[in-house]
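Hi U.,

Before I forget, here's the chain from the pilot set. I'm dumping it here mostly so it's searchable later in email.
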Amino acid sequence: MPAYYDESTKTWFCKFYYTDYTGAKKQKKKRGFKLQREAKEWERNFLERLQGTPDMTFQALYDIYIDDMRHRLRPGTVKKAESVFRNRILPYFKDKPISSITPADIRAWQNTQIDAGYSSGYLEQIHIIMSILFNYAVSYYNLPSNPCKKAGGMGKQTRSMNFWTLAQYTGFIQHVTDIAAHAALQLLFYSGMRFGEMMALTLADFDFQANTISVSKTLHHASGCDTVGPPKTANGNRVISMPAAIMQEVQAYAAKIYGMAPEDRVFTFTDALIRGNIKRYSEKAGIPRIRIHDIRHSHVSLLIDMGFTPHLIAERIGDTVQMVNSTYGHLYPSKHAEVAEKLNRIIVPN
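Structure:
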């Protein structure tokens, strides 16, 4: 694995041959290294990535994985994983060969994360992201086993969630004066749709006669660029029946935008507008500040309080009945006492 010195630039470069996935032999050349060992290391990492051996470094595996996932996962999901790897994982493991990382190494890394004081839920998210990467290496790059499985988790999924009651929301929304923010918040609270789904809505998605909204896409904002893709799940494609008052407000807001065509997006601001209004006016209303996504939880909580079934709620928010039961089941009032009482009436008739 030789490296070469370029007298004209006073830097090192590597030049070598490799066989690509089609079987063709190709030459690779990379310039600009200050040190000879840097050029050799770059060549070694390139060949390890190409061959996908368990001796590749953690950084090389991560680069392969992220590039692969960009073709398969939503941009927001990839961006979240990149942030976790960059800040919580790569500084610890990037130069280690993946085959040399043991459960003991994982436990030692976990302890540094626990000592940092992160929440139990966040610790579990970090561990899951790490374990998924090692599962990827086991499945596609001949790693014998996933060290995260033997090491065990370092947190737990939490069931706590934040939401506003109808009374709290009503007290909040009366302070919002920006017409775009007001219309968007009303739409989020009374539809339960995801923020990205709302941001992707065009004027043509609104049927102001039938008072329905067709949801068939979602907007991703990453690295200063907006992209429109399919909803988060297959169930996300749906038609939502809306209160007439909310549809009238959206229609009035859209009418104020000059020259809006059916294919134009109705809301073109960023989430900063909604987050800013939530911060300012939740304080003014004297209620807890919540995230934008928690407005979706607020809608589901409202529907549960109104007595609607998990099946109807799942259809409305574009998810599964299983998800509604697992995420919101604790909000449903217990019926066990009612069951016992009805059984008792059968045993002991009045």
